[in-house]
Amino acid sequence: MTMNNHGRPTSPDHVPSDRNLDTVSGSRGLLQAEGLIFEVGTPDTTGVDLPKPKNRTGRLGGVARKKGTGLPGLSEPQAVRHYMRLSQKNYAIDLGLFPLGSCTMKHNPRLNEKLARLPGFADIHPLQPQATVQGALELIDELAAWLKTLTGMPAVAMSPKAGAHGEFCGMMAIRQALIARGEGETRKRVLVPASAHGTNPATAVQCGFVVDEIKANEIGRVNMEQLREKLQTSDDIAGIMLTNPNTCGLFESDIREIADLIHEAGGYFYCDGANFNAIVGRVRPGDLGVDAMHINLHKTFSTPHGGGGPGSGPTVLSEALAPYAPVPFVVKDEDGVFRLVEDMEGDASESFGRMVAFHGQMGMFVRALTYILSHGADGLKQASEDAVLNANYIQSRLKSVMTPAFDGYCMHEALFSDAFTAEGIETIDIAKSLIDEGYHPMTMYFPLVVHGAMLIEPTESESKAELDRFCDSLESIARRAAQGDETLKGAPYLAPMRRLDETKAARKPVLKWVEPNADSVAAE
Ligand SMILES: *Cc1c(COP(=O)(O)O)cnc(C)c1O
């Protein structure tokens, strides 16, 4: 048996069979088996034991419920255990390294949470008179100033509520600018590199544009010849949507030229800024010729995400697009009073409109500004540098056993292809085997331009010891994959659920619990 430098085995001698993992209770170790809440409780029981109110007549008239709700009754300990058991089946950034490339799963500092819970931020209401929420408006304004400074851009729309929503904001601003130029109907083509995040082409189409794909070249960047050719032969270019650093984890080396070419062709440059964590404090997108870029506060600026939590996607805009920014936005009047511009008049007369009911994700603004202020300009720069260093550490530790997709250093994420695997072993087998090792899988099969892609983003918040522990696990799995170890195909062996039909779960989700038919069960 080989041992790693922590004295733990690097490859199991023995892969457990299903049989010896079966227990009578269904629980494994101290991880409890848990059914659906409907299977735990029944509608016939109740968790509370209160006497019926005396001498009360119903006041609901004819609308009182005639039958029970069918909701199961649970006692308090049953309810607490149910959710506790479910929570222990979750993987979380607070539990371990979360290598999901493109998602920037970094630590969420507790200080952010503390400040977001201050009553002056947490207990205010968006419909309060603005005179009573001056501090909150000032916070939005201060965060906006930081985002403009860090990106080198003159304007920012704070209201978009996620990355994809920010893309929508930027592309709507581009659409509105084209309409103002009288070219809304003639410029419809948006160039999108093949490696783009799926949200980019989806956003372009949603805003009424036609997507035209540009291929990647052999070093994972935009194919400049194809770009030039497309720009020369089409007079309907609205713009380009480009991610930088791109989804291969690489800096687009020709980005200045791309910006110039797009501008010469009369189009705008949308930059997907989801990977901003790699360059904060080192590169300002405004200096690269960007016209619009969303920032994922929930990636770069450490606000929590995953599991459907709230995102926030402020979108910075160039001089050319700033007039078309959505309402509302915060302005500071000469007397020092902060005000939300809500209507499309005055400064906002050219706005493309409103994207959200109020002003955006206030709780995320508080968290992001806390993160920014607690790091300072030098700390933010160091965080980016450490994120890039950590990804390169992983790439360099694993490059002798796995196949890096491209030569040279990477930015904040390391990308491997499946070229090193023996016939029959696929990326999914490696990803599922990581679960048995206690890790959430890396991003797999994305970007599409790399065969069997495995995209690993450790972020800056992992220590070298934790990176080594992860690399030891992945290295051992990769060696088994290279040797064609068929047992990988059965992984995960140790998770509560084995391999699921994820396509079916996505396409035909079962969202409603139906009581099993007692008769048919009996007949089977
Ligand atoms: C995460 C991500 C997005 C979308 O952001 P959401 O907040 O999930 O909508 C867009 N592009 C890239 C490259 C991303 O990584």
UniProtKB/TrEMBL annotation:
SUPFAM superfamilies: PLP-dependent transferases
Start and end residues of each Aminotransferase class V domain: 191-306
Annotated catalysed reactions: N(6)-[(R)-lipoyl]-L-lysyl-[glycine-cleavage complex H protein] + glycine + H(+) = N(6)-[(R)-S(8)-aminomethyldihydrolipoyl]-L-lysyl-[glycine-cleavage complex H protein] + CO2
Domain Glycine dehydrogenase C-terminal: 383-482
This protein's UniProt keywords: Oxidoreductase, Pyridoxal phosphate
Enzyme Commission number(s) from the entry: 1.4.4.2
Keyword Oxidoreductase applies: yes
Superkingdom, taxonomy of origin: Bacteria
One of the record's GO molecular function terms: pyridoxal phosphate binding
Region (Disordered): 1-25, 47-74
GO cellular component, one term: glycine cleavage complex
Gene3D superfamilies noted in UniProt: 6.20.440.10, Aspartate Aminotransferase, domain 1 (3.90.1150.10), Type I PLP-dependent aspartate aminotransferase-like (Major domain) (3.40.640.10)
UniProt record, GO biological process: glycine decarboxylation via glycine cleavage system
PANTHER family per the UniProt record, alphabetical: GLYCINE DEHYDROGENASE (DECARBOXYLATING), MITOCHONDRIAL, GLYCINE DEHYDROGENASE, DECARBOXYLATING
NCBIfam families referenced in this protein's UniProt entry, alphabetically: PRK04366.1 (NF003346)
Function text: The glycine cleavage system catalyzes the degradation of glycine. The P protein binds the alpha-amino group of glycine through its pyridoxal phosphate cofactor; CO(2) is released and the remaining methylamine moiety is then transferred to the lipoamide cofactor of the H protein.
Protein name: glycine dehydrogenase (aminomethyl-transferring)
